[in-house]
Specification:
Blueprint lengths: L1 E7 L7 H17 L4 E3 L17 H16 L5 E10 L2 E10 L2 E7 L24 E4 L2 E7 L1 H4 L5 H6 L4 E6 L7 H16 L2 E6 L1 E4 L2 E4 L3 E3 L5 E4 L6 E7 L5 E3 L17 H19 L5 E4 L4 H14 L4 E5 L7 H14 L2 E4 L3 H15 L6 H22 L2 E4 L3 H6 L12 E2 L6 H12 L8 H5 L19 H13 L4 H4 L5 H13 L1 H4 L29
Parallel strand pairs: 1-2, 2-3, 7-8, 8-9, 16-17, 16-19, 17-18, 19-20
Antiparallel strand pairs: 1-14, 3-4, 4-5, 6-7, 9-12, 10-11, 12-13, 14-15
Helix pairs in contact: 1-2, 6-7, 6-12, 7-8, 7-12, 9-10, 14-16
C-alpha cells in the first residue's frame, strides 16, 4: 500500500518565508496522517505566477535556499515541491522530489504554455525528455507539471511506457467557469491512455486577476474520477493505493478507507465562490483590512457589497450612498436597506451642492451648449473623488462595481465609477450579475432587496435614464460580447438572425473602449477570456470587418 497526501494550499506570490512555513506545516500534517508521500502544486514555493520576479537572480537563489530548508524538515516522508530551478542555461519551472530530507531528482517542465494568461516561454527553459521517474515503496512513479499532461505530446506517454503506475501532476490551473469539466475530461482521458493512476494537485487562492480553485483529484486507470478535494479552500486529500482499487481517507480524521468525493457546485455557485476567494485574497494579501463601496441602490454595487461581506466580514465593509438630484427615492431607499440587510456601516454624502459648484465653475465655458455626457460624468467623478478621499484618509480599499458588459462597451466613466483599487465583477456579464444575486439570496436570508433585482438598470445621471437607451438589451449584448471577446467570432457569424446593427454597435464600442479598459483596476477572471491578462487589443486600431 502507498498512502498519498495531496496538499492543496494557498501560497502568496513572492512570500518565500510564508510559503516555506506553510509547506512545512502541511508536510507535518501529512506525516501525522502516516502518508508515504505529500505532493504540492506547481511553483508552490514562489507562488504562481511569479512573473518578472523571475528576472531577479536573487529571488531565484532565495527560492532554492528555501527549498533546502523544506528538505531538511522532510525526514521520514517523500515530498514533491514545485519551485524554480536554475543552471547555466537558464531557469526552469521545476518539481523537486525530496526523499527523507534530501533533494533527489529534480524534474523540469517540458511543455511551456504561451497562450491566454500564460507566458511561461518569456521566463523558462524547456526541460529534457526522459525525466521524472522515481520509485517509492517498490512502485514506479512519475512526476510532471501542468501543461505536460494537457499537451497531446507531453511526457506522460513516455513515462507510462517506462512503467509508471502512478503519475503525479503538479498544477496551477486558474479558474474559469468552464475549466473543471475540461480538467476532468482530460485527466480521465490521460489515465486511460497511460493505464496509470493520475494524482492531480492544483493550487488554490487569488492572485491579482486570477483565482485558483483547487479541485485536486485522482483519476483511475479506467478513466473514473475516484477521489477529489473541495474547491476554493485549502485541503489535505489523502488516498491509499492498493494492488486493487484505490481508497481514500479524509484528512485529520481516522483512517477510514472510503472514497472522498467533493460535493459538486453549480456554475453560478462556483462563480460566486471564485469572486469571494479572489476578493478575500486580494484584500488580505495586499495588506488591506477594510473596503469602501459606492452604493447606488443598483444591482452591481449590491452584488459587490454582498461578495465583500462574505469575503472579509460585515465589520470590514463600508457602504457610501452619494445621491444627486437624479437619484430616485427607490434607489436611495434600497441602498439603505441593502446596508442594513448586510449589517455594514452606511454613510450618505449628498453631491448636489458639489455638482452645483462644478456647474458654476464651468458655466462661462459651457455657455450656450446643451447638457450632455460631460455633465453626467462630472457626477460620477465627484463620487470617485469622495470614495478615494475616504480611502486615503482611513486606508480603505475602494472596490469598483462595473460589470463586464459595461467595461466591454465603455458604459463607464474614467476617474469616476472606474475609480478604485479592485474591480470585483469586472469579468461578470450583466446577465450573470442577476443570476449571482438570485443565488446569494437563496443561501438563507434575502440580503439583496428584490426591488433592486427587478428595477430596470440605470446610471441615474440624467432624468429618466435607462441603460437600454444607449445599449442593446443585456441578454443580446452579452451573447454578442461572448462571441466577439471570448470566442473570436467574426462579424459575419455574429450578425446572423437579424442582429447586424446590434453586432456593429457592440464591436465598435468594444474596440473604441480599449483605452478605458487599459486604465481600469484589476478584477477577477471568471470567464474563458477576460479583459486584462488574456486580452490585448491595440488601442490604436483601424481594422474593421464591415
Amino acid at each position: 500500500m502507498l498512502r498519498v497526501a495531496q496538499a492543496q494550499i494557498n501560497p502568496t506570490v513572492g512570500d518565500l518565508k510564508g510559503n516555506t512555513k506553510k509547506i512545512i506545516a502541511y508536510i507535518e500534517k501529512a506525516k501525522g496522517n502516516k502518508a508515504d508521500i505529500v505532493v504540492f502544486p506547481e511553483l508552490v514555493l514562489t507562488g504562481y505566477p511569479p512573473e518578472d520576479l523571475l528576472h531577479k537572480d536573487h529571488f531565484v537563489k532565495d527560492n532554492i535556499k528555501a527549498l533546502k530548508t523544506i528538505a531538511a524538515k522532510s525526514k521520514g516522508i517523500f515530498a514533491i515541491v514545485g519551485f524554480v530551478d536554475k543552471d547555466s542555461k537558464g531557469i526552469y519551472n521545476a518539481a523537486a522530489v525530496i526523499d527523507n530530507g534530501k533533494i533527489g531528482k529534480v524534474y523540469h517542465k517540458q511543455k511551456l504554455p504561451n497562450y491566454g494568461v500564460f507566458d511561461e516561454q518569456r521566463y523558462f527553459c524547456e526541460g529534457k525528455s526522459g525525466s521524472g521517474m522515481f520509485t517509492l515503496n517498490k512502485v514506479k512513479c512519475a512526476v510532471n507539471i501542468c501543461e505536460d499532461i494537457w499537451h497531446d505530446k507531453g511526457p506522460f506517454k513516455e513515462q507510462a511506457k517506462k512503467g509508471a503506475a502512478i503519475i503525479f501532476n503538479l498544477s496551477s490551473s486558474p479558474y474559469d467557469y468552464t475549466k473543471l469539466k475540461q480538467r476532468e475530461r482530460l485527466l480521465a482521458k490521460r489515465s486511460k491512455q497511460t493505464k496509470a493512476y493520475i494524482f492531480y494537485t492544483n493550487l488554490i487562492g487569488g492572485q491579482d486577476e486570477l483565482v485558483f480553485d483547487g479541485g485536486s483529484l485522482v483519476a483511475a486507470p479506467n478513466g473514473k474520477i475516484i477521489s477529489s478535494a473541495d474547491r476554493f479552500k485549502e485541503e489535505l486529500l489523502i488516498n491509499d493505493v492498493h494492488k486493487g482499487p484505490i481508497k481514500a481517507a479524509k484528512a485529520y480524521g481516522r483512517n477510514i478507507t472510503v472514497v472522498k468525493k467533493a460535493k459538486p457546485q453549480t456554475q453560478i455557485a462556483s462563480i460566486y465562490n471564485a469572486l469571494v476567494l479572489g476578493t478575500k485574497d486580494y484584500i488580505g494579501k495586499n495588506g488591506f483590512s477594510k473596503v469602501v463601496i459606492g452604493l447606488s441602490g443598483g444591482i452591481d454595487s449590491a452584488l459587490v457589497a454582498a461578495v465583500a461581506v462574505d469575503a472579509i466580514g460585515r465589520d470590514n465593509v463600508i457602504g457610501v450612498s452619494m445621491p444627486s438630484k437624479y437619484s430616485s427615492k427607490g434607489t436611495q431607499t434600497d441602498a439603505k436597506r441593502l446596508a442594513k440587510n448586510l449589517g455594514i456601516e452606511f454613510k450618505e454624502i449628498p453631491i448636489r451642492s458639489l455638482v452645483g459648484a462644478f456647474d458654476r465653475a464651468l458655466k462661462p465655458y459651457f455657455k450656450g451648449l446643451k447638457a450632455n455626457v460631460a455633465e453626467e460624468n462630472i457626477q460620477a467623478r465627484i463620487r470617485g473623488n469622495l470614495l478615494m478621499a475616504l480611502s486615503n484618509k482611513f486606508g480603505w480599499l475602494v472596490l469598483t462595481t462595473g460589470n463586464k458588459s459595461e467595461m466591454a462597451v465603455g458604459y463607464c466613466t474614467l476617474y469616476g465609477d472606474m475609480c478604485g483599487g479592485f474591480a470585483v465583477i469586472k469579468d461578470v456579464p450583466k446577465t450573470k450579475v442577476y443570476a449571482l444575486c438570485e443565488y446569494r439570496n437563496a443561501q438563507g436570508k434575502t440580503v439583496i432587496p428584490v426591488s433592486i433585482i427587478k428595477r430596470a438598470p440605470s446610471a441615474e445621471l440624467r432624468s429618466n435614464q435607462k441603460d437600454q437607451d444607449s445599449l442593446p438589451d443585456y441578454g443580446l449584448l452579452d451573447e454578442l460580447l461572448s462571441g466577439y471577446v471570448e470566442k473570436h467570432q467574426s462579424f459575419a457569424k455574429m450578425a446572423g438572425k437579424g442582429r447586424k446593427n446590434a453586432a456593429i454597435k457592440a464591436i465598435n464600442l468594444v474596440d473604441l473602449s480599449e483605452y478605458k479598459r487599459r486604465q481600469a483596476p484589476p478584477g477577477i477572471k471568471i470567464t474563458p477570456r477576460a479583459f486584462g491578462r488574456d486580452w490585448r487589443l491595440p488601442i490604436t486600431n483601424k481594422y474593421k470587418e464591415f
